[in-house]
Structure formats: structure tokens, C-alpha cells
Task: structure prediction
Amino acid sequence: MRFGRVLLAVAALAAAILAQTGDKPLTNNEIGSMLASGLPESTILLKIETAAYYGLVNLDASSAALAALKQRGASEQVLNAVMWAQPFGAPLKWQQEEDRAAPGLPNPSGVYYRASSGWVVLPSSPVWPKYYSFSLGARGYDVPLGGSHANLQIGGQKVGFYLRKPSSLNWRIVRLKSRGDERLLRMVSTGRFASVDAFEAERTHQVHIAQVTSDIFTVVPAEPLQPGEYALCTTVLGSASVYACHGFGVQR
Result:
């Protein structure tokens, strides 16, 4: 019974601490304030443990930071608790980093465009050029992507995309041809089975890729794009001859 009452008391205290903490992560300054106010060491330790359990810690366990806490009266147990709890704040810092770089970016891997109405995911169309090059037997051939226009139409020349956990950083923007109600991806083949078919050079645009967080990258064209239909393409992981293309359009 006594053990049960202790567990209830600890749980109640933890709930009270969490309610006071809310979504605000525990910091070295807050620990320093608790030390200055004379709170019992056991309470400070429980505060650190509870915040770490919920991942609500933003602690600095560097030598200088620990020395500063020591000067404010932190015991060895408190300093050790700070060192123990500091790694539990990594997910929070990771999320804060993402929120600064791309607020609200969806978690699934993919290609995204930030429109005024929110994030837009660009569907992927698999392209296997060899299927068309062998069936058509031509050096230059067109791969249909379907539909006369992509769902995403971007106004003006300011084009840029976000990549979440890309499997490749080998991206190109290719301007598409049109035939009737179809968009066509122009390819060039050497006619040899072992070779890799390429996009037509005159329609290919280079891109600049920048890493903004551990798994988020931005892709922007190296030069402004003229109005028309395009595809942002990359090779599929594990196959240099299969592409994943994401269609979009540029309007005046």
C-alpha cells in the first residue's frame, strides 16, 4: 500500500510539473532559476526526468554550460541529470529546425511546392525509356505523360520545390512537348542495350539543389523558365535507366 501511495504521489507531481511546463522545453536558465529559488534537489531532478520523458528539453550540456550551472549551485546529481537528459531534446530541436526551414511540410517523402493555399505534392510518373526505345526503334522518341496540362500550374517565373527524403540528388527539369491532349517527354537513345537513354539536351534545364535540414532539400532552376509544361525528373533508386518525373506548368 505504501509503495502504491508513493507511485501515486510521484505521478501526481509529474502531472503537475508537465502542466506547468506545457509545450515549453526545459532549459538551463530554468534550472538555474529553480536553483536560485531554493527548490529541493529531488524536485529539480524530477523536473528534469519528466521533461526528458516527454522530449521537452532544450538543454546545453557543454563544459561551459555545466560550469555555469555549477556556479549557480547545481550539485553533481543535477549536472549529471542535465547530461543524461540533453539527448532527449534532439527530436524537438529537429522539429524546430524543420519549422523554421519549411513550416508545415508534410512528413511523407516526396516532391512539394509551397503554394499560397498550402503545400502541394507533385505526383510521380515512372518513366522506363527502354520500353519505348525498343518498341519504336528510333534514336529520338517521345514518352507520353498523359494529359495536356499538369495539375500544378505556377504563375510567373519563380519556380522552386522542396524534396523530403529524396532517394537521389540527380535532378533535372525537362521541358515537355505537346501533341493533342498529351504531354510528351523527349528522349534520345544510342540504340545500344547497355547504354542509358538521356533527355534531349535542348529541353533540359540544370537545377540548383540546397540542403536546408537533414532530410529536406530545395530545388530551383538555374535559369528562369519560360511558360510551358515541364517535368522535374530524377533516376529511381537502384536503376539508372528508370526515371521518376513530376509534372508542372509555368504560366505567364
Remarks:
- The two ends are 76 Å apart (CA to CA).
